């Protein structure tokens, strides 16, 4: 399983609109494309949203992510939650815990 951490600074005053668009659009579409979610969190007292997404397919995370972004469904997503993001940060992450 490959995991990616995503942390977004959301434009001031746009968190509710972002969450509605993300939950209605990104969340179900990512699941349709085979992604799993370790969680998604709104940071208390800040305009920040953090989520961890996983993928375990034979083609790997990068290929699945590309397929997701190139899909007609993602291109047609309205409203596009990305419009509410001021600063995105993402990184592939690996567990350090013993199995």
User: Radius of gyration, Cα only, in angstroms?
Assistant: 14 Å
**How much of the polypeptide forms β-strand, as a percent range?**
25-35%
> What sequence of helices (H) and strands (E) makes up the elements?
EHEEHHE
The share of residues in helices is 25-40%
Low-confidence stretches: none
* Biggest beta sheet summary: 4 strands, antiparallel
Number of H/I helices:
3
Mean pLDDT equals 97
Q: Which tags fit this structure?
A:
4-stranded antiparallel beta sheet; 3 helices; 99 residues; 4 strands; alpha+beta
Written description of the protein model:
This protein has 99 residues and is α+β, with helices and mostly antiparallel strands. It is 32% helix and 33% strand. It has 3 helices and 4 strands. A 4-stranded antiparallel sheet has the order 2-3-1-4, with helices on one face. β2 and β3 form a beta hairpin. The mean pLDDT is 97.
Please describe the topology of this protein.
Layout: E1 2-10, H1 15-32, E2 36-42, E3 48-55, H2 61-70, H3 72-75, E4 85-93
Antiparallel strand pairs: 1-3, 1-4, 2-3
Describe what is shown at a glance:
This protein is of the alpha+beta class and 99 residues long. 32% of the residues lie in helices and 33% in strands.
């Amino acid at each position: 399983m490959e995991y990616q951490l995503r942390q977004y600074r959301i434009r001031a005053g746009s968190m509710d609109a972002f969450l509605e668009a993300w939950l209605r659009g990104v969340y179900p579409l990512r699941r349709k494309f085979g992604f799993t979610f370790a969680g998604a969190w709104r940071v208390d007292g800040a305009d920040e949203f953090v989520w961890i997404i996983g993928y375990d397919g034979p083609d790997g995370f990068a290929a699945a992510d590309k397929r997701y972004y190139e899909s007609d469904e993602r291109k047609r997503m309205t409203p596009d939650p990305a419009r509410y993001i001021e600063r995105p940060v993402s990184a592939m992450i690996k567990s350090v815990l013993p199995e």
